[in-house]
Amino acid sequence: MKISVIISTYNCGALIVKALCSLVSNQTPACELEVLVIDDGSIDNTRQIIKKFQAKVSFTLKYFYKKNGNWGSVINYVKENRLANGDWITVLDSDDTLKPNTLNKLANLVEKADYDLVVFDYTKCWKKIKLKIHTYPTWWKNMTRELQKQTPFCIPLGKFLKRNLFYKLPKLKEKVSFQDALYTASSLKLAKKVRHVNQSGGNYHFKRAGNSMSIPWNIKRFSAELDICKDLIRLNAQEIALVHLLRQQFRVQLKEKQIQLAVTRDFNFSGFSWYTRCFLWMVYQTMLKRYFYLQTTKQ
Question: Structurally, how many domains does the chain consist of?
C-alpha cells in the first residue's frame, strides 16, 4: 500500500524537521511512503533543509516550490499536477506531527475493509497543554449518514482519503485562509464509508505564530470566516458553520455589520456526541440563534 503525505509549508524551516522526523518514525513494511513538500513561496531555508533530508531518508521525498497562494492553493496545485500517487492521501501541516504507529494502524484497517476516508482523533497542543480531541464519540466506528459524518474538529490532521476521493474534491479558494475546514467538510460529504479510529493520529499545534488561528481580526479575516460559513452551509454542514460563531470577535463584527446567515433547514445536532450535542444546542438557543435565519424556498 502506498501513502502520499502532502506537507504544506510557508517559512517553517525551523519547524518542518519535526514533521519529517515523525514520518521517519512511522515507516513500516506495510506502507510505501511518498512525501510531497509543497513550499508556498517561503523565503527562509526550507529548501536547504529538505535537500539535506532527501539524502538521509529511505522513502520518496519530493520538494516543489510555488508562488504564495495560501493553503487552498497548495491542495489545488497537487491536484492540478496529479502529484499524489498514493492509494491513500493525507495532509500534514509543517508544524504538526504524526504519532508513532499511525500509518501501521491505517494499513491494518484498510486491509480488512473498503473505506473512502479514515479519521483519527488528534492531540491539541498549546504551550505546555496537551489535550486529546475526540473527533467523534469513542464508540463510533463506521459512519454513513450525512449528518453523522459531520465533525466540528475539521482540521486535516489524521484524516486519510482514498486517492479517487481526494481528486474528486472541489477546487479550493486561493489567497484566503481557513480552506482546511472546507477541505474536510467536502471530504466527509463525498465519502460513502467513513471509519473513525479512537486513537490520536497526530499532534496539532494550536495558535502557533504565523498560522491561521493567530491572524488578527481585521476585515480580511472576517471576510474569510464569513465566506467559509456560507460555503459550509451550501455543503449542508450548517452545524459546522455555527461552530465558527463561537469566536467572539466574529460575532461582534457580524452584529456590527448586521449580518445574518441564511439556512434552508432547522439545525440538527443528532449526529454529534451527546455532550457536543448538548453544548451546541445550548449555545445556539442562548447566543447564536440570532445570527441565522431560515430561508424558505419558493414552490
Answer: 2
